[in-house]
């Protein structure tokens, strides 16, 4: 069996995190990738990374903040699953609560802090060594945390 050099864990490839063919690999990224892999095992559905590492130019182009964890390859954005999008507000709230709680647990286990931004169609998960936060950036807030 041929080894796939790009495969960094059971569910992720390094190229998924790259930005315009560029990537940084640091000990912090390795920690983040391990946390994300454990989370993915629990999540039990695909996580297709929309945004992982970002160059400074890309971060600026998409309106990212200058302190973005994407600049250090410590965050991912991915679309929310179809079952979330089609669920009623009460089930969406439970889904969000479960995701937030699990991500917080995984980051804490790794010795870090969870950073989460919840959008209408996607979620941002980050691992920080400095602080934890949760932001609800949905345009239509049919439920609150």
TrEMBL record:
InterPro entries (alphabetical): Peptidase_M15A_C (IPR013230), Zn_M74/Hedgehog-like (IPR009045)
Pfam families: Peptidase_M15_3
Domain of life assignment: Bacteria
Annotated ranges, domain Peptidase M15A C-terminal: 11-82
Protein name in UniProt: Peptidase M15A C-terminal domain-containing protein
Species of the source: Sinanaerobacter chloroacetimidivorans
């Amino acid at each position: 069996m041929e080894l796939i050099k790009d495969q960094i864990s059971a569910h992720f490839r390094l190229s998924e995190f790259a930005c315009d063919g560029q990537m940084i690999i640091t000990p912090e990224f390795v920690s983040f990738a391990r946390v994300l892999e454990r989370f993915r095992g629990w999540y039990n559905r695909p996580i297709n990374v929309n945004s992982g590492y970002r160059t400074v130019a890309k971060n600026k182009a998409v309106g990212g903040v200058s302190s973005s964890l994407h600049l250090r390859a410590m965050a991912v954005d991915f679309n929310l699953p179809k079952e979330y999008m089609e669920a009623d507000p009460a089930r969406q709230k439970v889904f969000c609560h479960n995701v937030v709680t699990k991500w917080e647990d995984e980051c804490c286990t790794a010795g870090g802090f969870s950073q989460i931004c919840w959008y209408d169609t996607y979620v941002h998960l980050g691992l920080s060594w400095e602080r934890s936060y949760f932001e609800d950036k949905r345009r239509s807030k049919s439920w609150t945390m």
